[in-house]
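hey m, so remember when u said the tokens were messed up on ur end? i reran from scratch. heres the input so u can diff it against urs
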Amino acid sequence: MAETCPFCLQPDTKIYLTAKEGILRKCRRCHCVFNPQRANEFDADSEELNTGYNALIEKMAGLDAQIGKKIANFMAAHLEMSGNFLEIGCGTCFLSKVFRENYPRIRYTGIESSSKFFDALSHELKKQVFFDKDLSAALDRIPDHSQNAIILNHVLEHLPDPRATMLELKKKLSENGGIYLEVPNEQWKKAQIMVRNILKPNAPAWFAGHINFFTKENLGHFLDHCGFRVAALKRESIADNQATFIKMLGGEEVYRDNRLAQFAYHLLRLTAFEKLIRYGIVLRCICKKN
């Protein structure tokens, strides 16, 4: 069990939250929240993750296409959409299709540690993806300073040693390259658990495999500690990201059967309440080397 903060490496942490899934701790220095049970937390072929993610691959295809376009648009506003793009934890490679259709000058490579995701890929997509359960070993196959962009889309919250990973990725970036990060926004974790239980009764306090919990502020501090500057960092609202909201609930079938969730979404669309309270369902970020 680790009580030292995995983000700033300081030992000054306290218990933040206790739930049936375990304990979360919070760093008194950088205010990051983390699960102290770090060892083997991200096992991409674990039964828990398979149940939570892999069984929904086909159901999520339409949602992923919508999400992928939003990600690509955000990246295009801050990065040159050409050259080598590397995606860590690429899953179904839905971003590869978005790039191929809209940015043909991008040369896409993925890294995936789940055999179930990798085995589900087409023969052509497998040619673009390195399958390896050891991320460091997979990154050894990527030349240093070769990538114009690196993508971690809902990956950083799973990594046992996020700082070490970011330092490894920095070596792979070209001089003017950037990293796209997307993570759940956890600015009000305790309140989120309450709301989540209302919208989805008996739901776990946090998603399977999540061990790092970010806010806009502590994500910025973490990147600074790793030697990056933030080029763009935005809270993305539920109102503007229906597909992400539906995916986090468990898919379109779950959303169609959940009248309360539908009401909540349309209320947020009508009132723009999230902008008033500065909330967003996810954080989208572009960072570059200092």
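this time it looks ok to me. The chain is about 40% helix and 25% strand. if urs says something different then somethings off w ur setup not the seq
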